[in-house]
Fold this sequence. Notes:
The chain is α/β, with parallel strands linked by helices. It has a single domain, classed as Creatininase (Rossmann fold), CATH 3.40.50. The protein is 43% helix and 9% strand. The protein has 8 helices and 6 strands; from the N terminus they run H-E-H-E-E-E-H-E-H-H-E-H-H-H. The strands form 2 sheets. It has a 4-stranded parallel beta sheet with strand order 2-1-5-6. A two-stranded antiparallel sheet has the order 3-4. The model is unreliable at 248-252 (pLDDT under 50).
Amino acid sequence: MNQKVLYEEMCPQEFLEKIKKCPVAYLPLGTLEWHGPHLPLGADGIQSQELFIRVAEKIGGIVLPKLFLGPDRYFHNPNQELYGMDIYTGGTIIPYEMQQLPGSAYWMPDEQYQELIRRIAANLTRAGFKILVGHGHGPSIWQFEKMKTELKEKYDLICVTAFDFLQDEVFGYQYDHAAANETWITQNVRPDLVQMERILSGKEIPVGMAGKDPRKFGDENYGREIVEKNVEAMSKGLKEILTRCFQKYTEE
Ligand SMILES: [Zn+2]
């Protein structure tokens, strides 16, 4: 299907028709973050936006531009800021020293991030949306999940993530960091951006990857299955919420 689903590409009339049919906004909670030597720095937003595009093409709704700032664990010494995968905390495929990983440029404090999400929600409600789907970078999802009740009460926005429709260690969407899950998802949605040879050659050390080793676990079929299962689950779940809401609206 080749219909327009990206917010920034729509003219006002197209936007109005879309939102009337399906008042769902999809927000890719991205980062610009080291995802191993083999994945693009924008992997978080790329994966979630590609999932959203597929769901929007299937059931409707409008996909927002990717955010690239997000929260994460943080360590500050007099000379530099370290955050996220810079700080070795265990669970990674290869142990490594704390270090500034190349390319990462995304960190912001939790409170500022919550304020950003509030402003986005206020603007989306004003534009006419009823449901906000957020997904992407782990710590961004956790903050977003914590704000669900507040966003419903303050802005009348029903907020959900991909985890509300499919929670599974193997087939959940973006369930690890740059390891088998994220690697094979990215390989499925944007194969042109993945450089597997960088971790297969043994020349580059795959630091900052947490989860199952993508060189030993998963393949192209695994990536395809994750994407298909999540498109299916999210489409079904959102349709159920929409039906419930529309019934509520007609009753009122
Ligand atoms: Zn990620």
